[in-house]
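Q: Fold this one first, please.
A: Sequence and structure below.
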Amino acid sequence: MISFDRISVLNTYFDLLSEDEVLSIISGLNDLNEMGFRYIVTPNVDHVVRNCRSSEYQNLYKDSWLSLCDSRVLYRLLTKKSYPIRSVVTGSDLTLKIFEEIIDGSVNTISIIGVSEETVDKVKEKFKLQFVNHYNPKMGFINDDIEVKKCLDFLLNNPSDFVFFAVGSPQQEILANKFSKLEGSKGLGFCIGASLLFLSGEEKRAPKIVSTIGFEWLFRLFQNPRRLWKRYYDNLKIFSLVRGIESFSGERDKRSID
């Protein structure tokens, strides 16, 4: 049994784990397809600002199996307030490690929701994956009950060891949460945003030094300013939000995983 702490800050939950500890937990799971469905989220500044604006998304993180800090900016702001975030675990880095170190392409079954067939083919070839199920819902699917049901039915009809939700936030977290509540849902889910585009080489990640100093968001903004400028402008609110909270009080929830 592995024990660790979960804290809540700015209406978002964070598990106090390092990337190595997360990978150790996942690699130690037995028969993923036989366990009830669980999902991992990696909240960043965008998620936290959204959770402060509206309460409707907060339970997506509370109900997650693991919730990991995916922002060096957020990490630095919170540690200055004495919040004990262990380290940054980015969704993109975690996804890469899962494919490189944990998934056995000749054994494990995988389901992917989102991205194009071309992207899936590139990832399959790169990591020598043999058993991949793929469904790409239409734009705006999360507001269409029929399309959401198609996604959920697809996952139920194609039980997999690993499920990757690549439809952007909060759509992917909403879908993962809905699937976790269905009888018969199985496997381990990851809400991964654009991570598969990085794995396929269709989008470039920031150089390591840029990521380390906390400016990966700026690198992405330069790559796609029209799509991202409003999001990142809105995310500036994080500075006033963190400034307005008290320093860490020590309150933690004890958690354990068999």
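Q: Good. Now the second chain.
A: Here it is, same layout.
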Amino acid sequence: MAATIWLARHGETTWNLAGRYQGRLESALSGLGVRQGMALADAFAERLRDGGRVPERIVSSPLLRCAATARFVADRLGVALETDERLIEIAHGTWEGRYRDDLAREDPDRYRAWRERPATVAFDGGETLRDVLARWDAVAADLARATRDTLVVTHDAVVRCALVALEGKGLDEFWNVAVENAAYAVIEADGRGLTLTEECVTAHLAHARADVAGQAL
């Protein structure tokens, strides 16, 4: 039987609110991010009560913002929380810890390229989108053979790379997929590959959706 994979982004963080690039640096969930994590757990608990499928396995990026979001679901369902280094956020290199508006002014050419031609950008001391996609491809190969329904909690850049790959698009479409804090994509694994069935589920968030437009992504 095919396994269901839920691919979620972490809840909103204090640095998301501040418009500050996170990359590999740690930042805590904001108050809204905590509510989003609880809403994600509530959604799966409701599915369980209704006899629906829920995660039998939960895998997260090791960074705090993802692990904290995943922990709400893991504790509610009584499922162990695993971490996978391949799910870590893109390394923004010298941009990490800096504010989006400052970078638009101080590193304008790279910032413009990142917003308009993201697949061409290599971050000083960091990664490219092709590096992130390679990490996702390795994870996807494992998930394709999954026999247990699985929740994966990761970061914006990883989710975007996953979605463009699953939709058969190129990395130039990186910004043209829908990703929100604590929202999730639904993917089916059949032993041979992965099929995307829903790109961005937000119904469980109700009034807890974050304004991603101001975030440093």
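Q: Anything worth noting on the second one?
A: The domain at 3-209 is CATH 3.40.50.1240 (Rossmann fold).
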